[in-house]
Write a sequence for this structure.
């Protein structure tokens, strides 16, 4: 296809921003979804336009069905359709399970699980032939690090979906996969962590560093581009951390 459109949820965040730029470099027009930071989303859209592609920013609460539906409708109206859905949006509050209140747990499930369900469902309905859906899990489901209980539960459920949805879309020429990054140098990862802890986590990787958003964006670019034989899988993009 000469005209391809990608919807990147959480497009104002670290990984989402890198994905938007990488897909623009590959010729995609990009819809940059955000919830709370319009200025940063517009910065990402400006970067896409600098690469010669069209871009729009769209605010949506992905845990709300009407808002999620409106997001997809806006993308189709403004950019002409949807060929790739990359769902990076999510939250990651940390605390030991014994100290996690139900309100926080429900908030995590609403953002990470309900949001994924709605985005994947609408993607299944709307992505054009030759397209892709890329969901996001986390290598924490393998690392099993203390204080990540609610977050890991929400993402473990995401990993159950790609193969089921890929099989449901048989004959549509639409691939469905999940990417599970390891520790990645983003504001979300650094939040609340002392530098000593960050350095210790980086040292556990065979490469001796944290992943970067660009590392993860390369995996996404392959999945929505030439890697059509990868379908129904969860790809652990962590440099060997897990």
């Amino acid at each position: 296809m000469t005209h391809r459109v990608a919807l990147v949820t959480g497009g104002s965040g670290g990984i989402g921003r890198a994905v938007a730029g990488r897909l623009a470099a590959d010729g995609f027009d990009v819809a940059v979804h955000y919830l709370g930071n319009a200025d940063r989303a517009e910065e990402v859209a400006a970067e896409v336009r600098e690469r010669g592609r069209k871009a729009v920013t769209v605010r949506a609460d992905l845990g709300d069905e009407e808002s999620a539906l409106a997001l997809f409708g806006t993308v189709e109206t403004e950019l002409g359709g949807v060929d790739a859905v990359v769902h990076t949006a999510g939250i990651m509050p940390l605390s030991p399970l014994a100290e996690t209140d139900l309100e926080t747990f429900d908030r995590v499930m609403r953002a990470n699980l309900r949001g994924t369900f709605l985005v994947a469902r609408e993607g299944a309905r709307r992505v054009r032939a030759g397209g892709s859906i890329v969901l996001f899990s986390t290598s924490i489901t393998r690392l099993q690090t203390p204080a990540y209980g609610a977050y890991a539960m929400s993402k473990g459920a995401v990993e159950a979906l790609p193969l089921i949805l890929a099989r449901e879309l048989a004959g549509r020429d639409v691939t469905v996969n999940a990417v599970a990054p390891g520790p990645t140098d983003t504001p979300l990862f650094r939040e609340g962590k002392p530098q000593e802890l960050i350095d210790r986590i980086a040292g556990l990787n065979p490469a001796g560093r944290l992943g970067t958003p660009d590392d993860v964006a390369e995996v996404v670019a392959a999945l929505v581009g030439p890697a059509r034989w990868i379908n129904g899988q969860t790809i652990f993009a962590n440099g060997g951390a897990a």
Observations:
- Strands lie at 4-9, 28-34, 55-59, 84-87, 132-136, 175-181, 234-237.
